[in-house]
Recover the amino acids of this structure.
């Protein structure tokens, strides 16, 4: 009896941790896939709705803009409803937006896209806070890496399967089908957060926690915002134009260029899991940061100087973009003084960063149109990577972490 009594709590705790990790990963599958699912069938959507390329681009750019503009709402919702219920609301909104986007007509497609963007924004803000609050500090970096990797897995799955599904049942039903992932994630999240939901209810509203005087004046908060702006601008700028760059510079056809550019997305999994290892091996986050920034810089520099090795540069840049997200939000978790401040920092860092990132594809494309070559756009990406490096270095060296 005594042995059973002493061993039951650790087993229960391990089961709870495993279920919570599964819930985090299930939610992550839904936080990028619904956006990129549109890309491979965009030509079909344009023809069906009778719209131009610029209007069709709203279906991919509007969610990124929502990531910025909707962060105050996301932070407010999570404060009022709590992290657990707030994520459930987000998954419900994601399902609703997916349904609306598949209704006939451009208006519903745009409305659904905006709803999807707002719902994903809530999840974006919530998940790093959940990881920082409920995962042991020694494992938080690894879990954040797994979460980041699953964002890319969700993108790869939807990019790979949307076209064959659309060929069989049409693009509306193909996009609608991904709503099933939100339903599954909601069930797993409900089960996985049962214990934390009870603790949160007993603790009271999140906003009752002190966050310190003028938390937003801390230099580390703005340094992380600048760093994430550089990271996100680079990611969305490269993602939007890499297939065309490979086609122009290497003479690939459109299909081969699109497939080749997926190396950039797939390699993110390596960075997402590799950076947490570096964060655990070294006492300071600076070595991980330097590796990430060097690998990021290798992509534009390599394509400028030795484009024939494009696969290597895309792999390095892809690993860097997965690792960059992980290291930045690991710093958010480390530097926040409590969960309430972590939520506010996450919202501000993402709000400012995604506001800049929304301009990435437009700026890179405009520079290409103005210069008629890819040298200028790649120099723009280098400048964005330099911004990431400066901001993250300041954040990594300033102040002591909450967990140290």
């Amino acid at each position: 009896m005594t042995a059973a009594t002493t061993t039951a709590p650790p087993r229960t705790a391990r089961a709870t941790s495993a279920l919570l990790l599964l819930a985090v990963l299930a939610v992550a599958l839904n936080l990028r896939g619904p956006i990129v699912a549109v890309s491979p069938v965009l030509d079909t959507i344009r023809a069906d709705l009778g719209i131009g390329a610029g209007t069709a681009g709203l279906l991919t750019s509007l969610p990124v803009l929502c990531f910025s503009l909707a962060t105050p709402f996301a932070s407010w919702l999570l404060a009022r409803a709590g992290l657990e219920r707030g994520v459930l609301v987000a998954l419900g909104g994601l399902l609703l937006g997916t349904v609306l986007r598949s209704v006939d007509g451009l208006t519903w497609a745009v409305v659904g896209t905006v709803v999807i963007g707002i719902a994903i924004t809530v999840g974006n803000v919530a998940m790093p806070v959940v990881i920082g609050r409920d995962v042991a500090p020694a494992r938080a970096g690894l879990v954040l890496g797994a979460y980041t990797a699953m964002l890319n897995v969700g993108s790869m799955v939807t990019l790979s399967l949307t076209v064959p599904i659309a060929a069989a049942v049409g693009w509306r039903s193909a996009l609608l089908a991904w709503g099933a992932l939100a339903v599954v994630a909601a069930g797993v999240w409900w089960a996985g957060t049962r214990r934390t939901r009870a603790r949160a209810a007993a603790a009271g509203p999140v906003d009752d926690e002190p966050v310190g005087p003028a938390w937003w004046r801390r230099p580390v908060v703005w340094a992380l915002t600048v760093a994430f702006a550089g990271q996100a601008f680079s990611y969305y700028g490269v993602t939007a134009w890499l297939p065309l760059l490979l086609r122009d510079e290497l003479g690939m056809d459109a299909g081969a260029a699109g497939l080749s550019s997926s190396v950039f997305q797939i390699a993110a999994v390596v960075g997402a899991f590799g950076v947490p290892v570096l964060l655990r091996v070294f006492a300071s986050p600076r070595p991980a940061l330097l590796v990430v920034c060097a690998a990021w810089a290798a992509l534009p520099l390599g394509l400028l100087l030795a484009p024939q090795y494009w696969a290597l540069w895309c792999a390095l840049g892809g690993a860097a973009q997965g690792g960059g997200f992980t290291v930045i939000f690991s710093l958010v978790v480390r530097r926040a003084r409590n969960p309430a401040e972590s939520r506010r920092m996450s919202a501000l860092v993402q709000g400012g960063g995604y506001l800049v990132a929304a301009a990435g594809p437009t700026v890179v494309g405009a520079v290409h149109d103005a210069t008629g070559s890819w040298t200028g756009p790649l120099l723009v990406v280098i400048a964005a990577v330099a911004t990431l490096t400066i901001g993250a270095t300041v954040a990594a060296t300033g102040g002591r972490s909450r967990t140290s």
Notes: The chain has two domains: 14-208, 211-404. The CA atoms of residues 129 and 343 lie 6 Å apart. Residues 1-9, 399-404 have pLDDT under 50 and may be disordered. The domain at 211-404 is CATH 1.20.1250.20 (Growth Hormone; Chain: A;).
